[in-house]
Amino acid sequence: MRNRVGIVGFGQTHHRSKNTDCKGQELISIAVKRALESAGLTISDIDAVVIGNMDHFESINYVDMWSIDGSGGFMKPIMKVTTGGTTGSAIGHAGFYHIASGLFDTVLAIGWEQNSESDTTAAISTCFDPITEREFCGGAIGPLAAQYTAYMSKYGATEEDAAIVSVRDHKNAAMYNPYAHLRQTMTVDQVMKSQYISYPIKLLDICPRTDGAAAVIFATEERARKIAERPAWVLGVGDCHILVHVADGIGLANLPSLERAAHEAYEMAGVTDPFEQLDVAELYIPASTAGVTWMEALGLCEEGGGPRLIRSGVTEMGGELPINPSGGVLATNPIGATGLLRIGEAALQVMGRAEDKQVEGAEVAVATGFGGCFWSDVTVISSRPQLD
């Protein structure tokens, strides 16, 4: 890489289940305007744009061209990124590499989704093989349910362990994040008594479908130091898309792709002891069950130690390693933007600009993305351009 890369701006919409005030271009425009304002920049300061969403959800092709009125990308190089559920995090990584390559000095990365204009379950279900997968996958929830069933069988985890994750993330959204889609507190008992969607996942265990957008501005070290008093430095990125069919992941108790992506990002960043070196995490947890099963893949606990970690309280606000101070995906899920939100929220933490959800003394953060056939992306962000 030719350049160190800093994040200097982040903006997002106020998220909701159905935004009747805005069309897609307008959602994009709001996020872009807020990101530019946060960095003290104008669109003329942007050299290139990366944008993406789950384009087959809204049935909009060539979103890179269709969105120009919102993105401000007129007469600028634009890259479209669409990688399923990892679209948002992949957009962030594309923005990072645009800068790291030396091709551009300042890049605007945009993710968005207007889920109220789509049928998410139908779109995902029809991606599956009609003979071998469609009957039991039935959208995004079935594979996640099958994974937690395997994890419970192998390690003795319970539905209540997952309910604790749901309570934690919803509480954080309600108390600290005015942009969140779902801002409601709940108890473990309420989660446990909510309706099953696909055993063992219940209604209050699963993320919503959200209308919203996010934008992150990346810059070279020279530009970043001039723009931001305290840039957020991208120290490491990792990606792992290893499965071709969703059925290939059925029966897996853990998430090998996240383990590999984390190893790649940690090695690049110089992270050798994740639990000790990370101060805060913004994790793509689409169902509360994933907040139990994927912890060891990130090196935060021993194999099968997810329940112990969650029940210990260390992942709560005020704990040793707070997870999802923003409320995460369980509270807000504009799919094409969801992973980019994790990167933006992690950047706010190490920049000391997370306001009510600020983790005191946060210097190193990790953000993750998830999607498709159990794919994973990992980003390590720090207040320092390199770890000691």
Structure description:
This protein is an alpha/beta fold and 388 residues long. It folds into two domains: 5-119 and 210-234, Peroxisomal Thiolase, Chain A, domain 1 (3-Layer(aba) Sandwich); 123-208 and 236-382, Thiolase/Chalcone synthase (Peroxisomal Thiolase, Chain A, domain 1), CATH 3.40.47. The chain contains 17 helices and eleven strands. The chain has a nine-stranded mixed beta sheet. It has a two-stranded antiparallel ribbon with strand order 5-6. The chain is globular. The relative contact order is 0.20.
Number of helices: 17
Q: Decide which structural class fits the backbone.
A: alpha/beta
Name the poorly predicted regions. none
Give average pLDDT, whole number.
Answer: 94
Query: What is the top-level CATH class of the largest domain?
Result: Alpha Beta
Give the neighbour order of strands across the main sheet: 3-2-4-7-1-8-11-10-9
Keyword list:
single chain; 388 residues; alpha/beta; Peroxisomal Thiolase, Chain A, domain 1; 2 domains; nine-stranded mixed beta sheet; two-stranded antiparallel ribbon; 17 helices; 38% helix; 18% strand; globular
Would you kindly provide a brief summary of this structure?
The protein is an alpha/beta fold and about 400 residues long. It is about 40% helix and about 20% strand. A nine-stranded mixed β-sheet has the order 3-2-4-7-1-8-11-10-9.
